[in-house]
Amino acid sequence: MADDSAATPPSIDGNTLVAKSLSHLGVTHMFGVVGIPVTSLATRAMALGIRFIAFHNEQSAGYAASAYGYLTGKPGILLTVSGPGCVHGLAGLSNAWANTWPMVMISGSCDQRDAGRGDFQELDQIEAVKAFSKLSEKARDVREIPNCVSRVLNRAGSGRPGGCYLDLPSDVLRQRIVESEADDLVAKVGTFNEHVTSARASEIESAVTLLRKAERPLIVFGKGAAYSRAEDELKKLVELTGIPFLPTPMGKGLLPDTHELSATAARSLAIGKCDVALVVGARLNWLLHFGEAPKWSKDVSFVLVDVSEEEIELRKPHLGIVGDAKTVVGLLNREIKDDPFCLGKTNPWVEAISKKARENGEKMEMQLAKDVVPFNFLTPMRIIRDAILAVEGPSPVVVSEGANTMDVGRSVLVQREPRTRLDAGTWGTMGVGLGYCIAAAVACPDRLVVAVEGDSGFGFSAMEVETLVRYNLPVVVIVFNNGGVYGGDRRSPEEISGPHKEDPAPTSFVPNAGYHKLIEAFGGKGYIVETPDELRSALSESFAARKPAVVNVIIDPFAGAESGRLQHKN
């Protein structure tokens, strides 16, 4: 019998071609939940050297993918099944959209010939993702896969970053193609970057003139500057000019919180009295009170630096500069270097900011110095701060979510390095905690990851502690357990009425819940603490071990308050 094998060239299916395309374009990590029709895609990707982190829930996997994009500057990849999996993944895609982080969601979908007939998990997924996707592509034939992959990856990270979507019908994933032809198609796709308008020389000159003539200038920077890796340029700008600076919550660490020109502890004075504000990589949204009075002076002149022309048109600043934060600040430094100016420590504005920051800092330290038991929020937060600062080597990545827990942590925890704080972000999203932890552990393998979570925030993604254990990630999750949202039952006697008055309050959880036992069920380390010494011991042991752990901190249920918007009283 003749051997026909030589006459039949080797072929691959669509799953392998997707994996080859991703690998060729530099993808090294994927996050997701597998099932029909994408299990083989994940397996093939792993075989090609892409690390696949498998989650329990697409929401958490999506949050991980979005944060990975922020931390690495490369689009985070989320893989989901069709229909409900795609819908669950929208949490992560919308988070990337809101925070302007690069991410690509890839979902399987039903056979094209069965579309519109009620197929298994059928959904018009292109339509479903429209509100949150910069670009949505559907591969309708196996040969379209490499170009589709290239387009969504490139669009996600170009211009203003954001989420993109790739739809892969199950019949396309099953289609086969001669391997040599597939390799040729993959080799032809490449990377490109959307053109970002370069700042004009006149704009740079005008911005420097405004700063030079200002009596009370302020530099504000946010996570857009962090994403741009603008820390060195911002440090040089601050030190060249002596202008006080104010980071947004996730801009913290671009310059150390301990820097002598930090206005964080004098925020109200800084934004209320400044006459010129250079805002770099931060939007004038609710986090910055929309740039409006009475929080800001009605006469303040904003110089807004943003990668998006649409953002500048929306905010209508005194001067808008479209461009990458790192590039624009570098141009400002060059312009200032030719004709330098510096406020100096004795400048009245600098003295006023420094004095107010020092006074508020001293007041905070007086409150923090007290050991309050049963725990309020300040005592354990101080102990956590000191433990994090004592970590040798690269600073840990701090993940913070919750109401009171995040608000207090924003004021107490100290960031010394860029991109070491992840929190609820622009959307104030709860449930990001464990996904962010996993993303940080994967993206920054040399750093310890410390989550400081409210018990409500932790509950959204608590099952992912099994994922921490399964991948043996260096993550310590600290849960502030005060028995519910804001702190258990806060109802007045008059509010406890009606036919269901015996039910728990809408804000209540089981008191003193054993959250630490959840990770123990999977082989991780759990701690329950109620005193300062117990907390110090748990943190010392878990930080040194760099193994998955949950520290369950019992908090007085009446220690917190309802929270939502930023409440700055300094």
TrEMBL record:
Q: Does the keyword Ubl conjugation apply?
A: no
Signal peptide coordinates: none
- E.C. number(s) listed in UniProt: 4.1.2.63
Instruction: Give the UniProt keywords, A-Z.
Output: Lyase, Magnesium, Metal-binding, Thiamine pyrophosphate
Q: Does the keyword Magnesium apply?
A: yes
- Residue ranges annotated for the Thiamine pyrophosphate enzyme central domain, each copy included: 204-329
Residue ranges occupied by any Thiamine pyrophosphate enzyme TPP-binding domain in the UniProt entry? 404-553
Write down the Pfam families for this protein, in alphabetical order.
TPP_enzyme_C, TPP_enzyme_M, TPP_enzyme_N
Catalytic activity as recorded in UniProt: a 2-hydroxy-3-methyl fatty acyl-CoA = a 2-methyl-branched fatty aldehyde + formyl-CoA; an (R)-2-hydroxy-long-chain-fatty acyl-CoA = a long-chain fatty aldehyde + formyl-CoA
Leading EC class: lyase
Cross-referenced Gene3D superfamilies: 3.40.50.970, TPP-binding domain (3.40.50.1220)
Domain named Thiamine pyrophosphate enzyme N-terminal TPP-binding: which ranges?
14-127
Which co-factors does it depend on?
thiamine diphosphate
The family line of this record is: Belongs to the TPP enzyme family.
From the Swiss-Prot or TrEMBL record, give the protein name: 2-hydroxyacyl-CoA lyase
Q: Which organism is it from?
A: Brassica napus (Rape)
The major lineage groups are: Eukaryota, Viridiplantae, Streptophyta, Embryophyta, Tracheophyta
